[in-house]
Model the fold of this input.
Amino acid sequence: MNSQDIYNAVTDIRDGQIEEAATPPKKKKIFIKFAAAAAVFALCVAVGTAVAPLLKNAKIPDGGGAATLHPKDGENAVTEEQKIPDGEENSFEMSKSLKKHAIAYAEYPETTKYRERMSSEELTKYYDESRERSLLARDYAPTAEGFVKTSVPAVLSGADGKNAVYSPLNLYIALSVLAEISDGPSREQILGLLECKDISEARKRASALWKGNYADDGTVLSLLANSIWLDDGVKYNSETAKRLAEDYYASAFSGEMGSAEYDGLLQEWINENTGGLLKEAAGGQKFSPDAVLGIVSTIYYGADWTEKFVGETTPGVFHSPNGDKTADFMHDDLDYCYFGDKFTAVSKGLTNSGGMDFILPDEGVEIDELLSDSNFADFITDARSAGAPKPIVVHMSVPKFDVASDAELSETLKTLGVTDIFDPTKADFSPILSKSDGAFISRVDHAARVEIDEDGVKAAAFTSVMLCGAAMPPEEEMDFTLDRPFIFVIRGSGGSVLFVGVVNEVGD
Done:
């Protein structure tokens, strides 16, 4: 039995076995920006900007996050003494420029790295950690199913022949953070979208999904990070800032909103936490001078295919809505296929990290029609909803692609029932701002990028772990050629939906 067999054995546990107005005052803008990069994925959420804090020492419960804080008691503004000293340990390689403006940084969970030569004790610890993460994610993935089913068609529909990519997991966590800093009807609307009865439930779910999907173990990279961006001199609620540091692993920075230096630091942090895959999108992220609060959240993901594509990559034609395009097609033989209502789907495994589904609409079925179909929504959150996969030899052909999208989501969130945060006469951010009258969200941007090739969802190279031989292949065969618009879903090891995308264009 090799290492992959052991991993499969310890993570293959069935669900039943797992326990369980008058004229408003001067308006203060808050904007949220989402960015995501796949194949290494990154999602950036910036809530609008500013806040100068006094962060009091945070005590982190066992198993929770951690933050090293540098407060100065009795003041409500960040001073030079509060900034992180040069040479102090950090959870990632924070540059000197970021360190100069950092008043708190999160200490992320340490994970045992897989190596080709490990002692039995190290190997046991590695698999115990992998199993624990997988079970935690698997236990809590269902809690976000309603949000995934509602938000996927709202975000991805109407691509109009263009590519579109979206990370439900990161948006879920980002909205949970937004719920923490809002109150009254503003909070209730967000909790309604998240399908949480109160903020405690939202906090618990977001924390569990974060921990269950965070991994840096030498075979898969799934790094999540959060940050708070504060404006020098603005008063804030230190208890809320403390909670964000403890429960959401949020580092905190302070600087002058609207300054070129602070904008550069924001862009640098995004690039640091997304592997530089979103440099173009990050370059457009800026704080306006009248902003009052900033929160940024990222996912950085990458994994190799469990089994490589077979044969050589060959040129072919992809029938885009905008005309035929030449693309490089990868080929593989799979052993089963899902036949759903209006679509056919196959799944290709990712080493120690779930897999990637490729979904081809039936002939005559448009992408938007499929996105709005309830049976398809069920499949996204749980592939088993389409019934047991049919054993059949599938000759799969999929084009290599590097797709990106950029969208503004304010109107999307409004259609999903989150409206008050965009209205300066109704928005309530009193949990974080000492004076929140007139503060509102002015913009919500979401940028995303996904790349796949012969090696996998692209990131750093990982140790290859071989599987035992497959069972006797079925007698039936079919071709599954993704040479026209299709949808993909990338799932974490516990079933969490990390990314969903629409591919309308590939190749030249």
Q: What stands out?
A: The longest strand covers residues 323-340. The first helix runs from residue 3 to 11.
